[in-house]
Design brief:
The protein has 253 residues and is an alpha/beta fold. It contains eight helices and seven strands; from the N terminus they run ααββαβαβαβαβαβα. Helix 4 links the parallel strand 3 and strand 4.
Length: 253
Amino acid sequence: MRSLAFNIAYWSLSGVYAIVCAVLALFPGRRVLMHGLRSYSRATLILMRVICGIKVEVRGTAPKNQPVIIGAKHQSWGDGIVMMAKCGDVNFVCGDHMLDYPLIGWVLKRCGAIVLSNQGGAEAQASLEAGVQRSQGEGRPRPILIYPEGHLTPVGEGMRYRSGVWRLSQQLNRPIVPVATNLGQCWPQNQWSKFSGTAVIEFLDPIQPSDDRDGVLAELETRVEARSRQLEAEFAPALEASQCQTQPEGARP
């Protein structure tokens, strides 16, 4: 029942804010628009806590208003929402599938997001290079959020980390801040069901810019995946109890 209530509230909120942010995008610059997007993110976190009993805990120091590349684990639809709520004026790299949602393409363009082709290749590389140039031209650098796996992954699993995060770090000469999470235990990928519990977003020690692409990617992947597995194990007992409580009596083992 809580999942149903949350999804109705969340998608209603998203629809309203899509219209509001599309209007805010008409204002010059991105300041007003970013206030609207952060307001949406924070409102979603309130819904998560009040309706679903999902508490978001931040460990480490969120790099607000710092010129860094945030290389984060991606296992939930809510990842980007939580990161925007906790990191302030953050830019982000996203796939072009986001353009399929009404009004989203216009909002993404106005807030300066780097939109990549999910097919990769030359088109994605060109989009990344354009994003680098825009980032270099910003008066006040801001964090850039990228999900190195490129796709959502189930809890307990991972995919090969792509080189885009390294390219951003090298060309902009910014450190990479690895981020581990277990949010997928409470909000599994893009599934309907939600489960009460603690979702941790943990900011790890930065990785300095380097010409060694393979070394940087290996270190990033190892640290993010290892810490994410530890967070999943830490909260697994409580999450399992929450999941059992949401099942019909006859369906419980």
